[in-house]
Amino acid sequence: MQLTSLVDTSFGPLHHRHWKPDEPALDSFLIIHGFGEHGLSYEAMATKLVELRYEVHCLDLLGHGLSSGARGYVPHLNAFWISQVEALHALKKHRNFKNSHVLAHSMGGLIAMTGLSQFKNPDGFFKSLTLSNPLVKEKLHVPGWKKSIGDILAQTLPKMSLPQKINFEHLSSIPIIQERLRNDELRHSKVSARLYKELSFYMAQLSPKTIDEIPLPIELWLSTEDKICDPEATLKLFKNSPTTQIHKFKNSEHEILNDIELQLALELLVKK
Questions:
Q1: Rg (Cα) of the chain, in Å, rounded?
Q2: Does 254 score more than 70 pLDDT?
Q3: Helix 193-205 crosses helix 144-156 at what angle (to 10 degrees)?
Q4: pLDDT higher than 50, residue 145
Q5: Residue 120: which region, alpha, beta or left (left: phi > 0; alpha: psi -120 to 50)?
Q6: 132, 162, 251, 258: which could join 172 in a potential S-S bond, CB 3.0 to 4.6 Å?
Q7: What is the pTM of this model?
Q8: 2-270 maps to which CATH number?
């Protein structure tokens, strides 16, 4: 069964998608998706988890999918995290959400890491954190002049955004999925000047201390040949973390849950 609703937050309504089995669920997962994505990007994974009697939640991020907000714009990065938590409060009040394991992908990983390290888990909403190719460092080099222009625009025209070129072969190795992603009308590729500056700032702030301040056990999933996020930089950040288990995916592109090692990822999830 799949249920959808709009949930009010102080930043505007977020679209909530909830997959649930007919029988009482064994456990619950909350997905925090990556840049340009939305809840339906995870339908294949959610469907398989429901078949195994797990429930899955996903709130489209601000400016993404069916949630409110200009595409690719956010006033500050923490607005993503705060709006998610506000929505979860509203859902829990109406008994539509129970404490969950968090699965955060790419930009969603950066949002979860910074949110949990700063705001912790005071409501006990979250049981564990799984990071799928989190945005720690971009793989592609960005010229200094482009960063300088971005800094100026972030102050003068913060909502100005331009579509970014996406190589769908770098997201999944499966041609039929590449085509589906390419034709996904809810997916977007716009990055505002403000969002780019916020992402750059918070990536630069990441340190082993950030990871130590996350009050949850962590699983890190790394595609060893990821061409979007730098796996070596991510591994360096986490390698000495006593609370992190690292799993390497040698045959997947950036979106592990849309690639040929989906079954391995599912097996890791249900072991929690």
A1: 17
A2: yes
A3: 120
A4: no
A5: left
A6: 258
A7: 0.94
A8: 3.40.50.1820
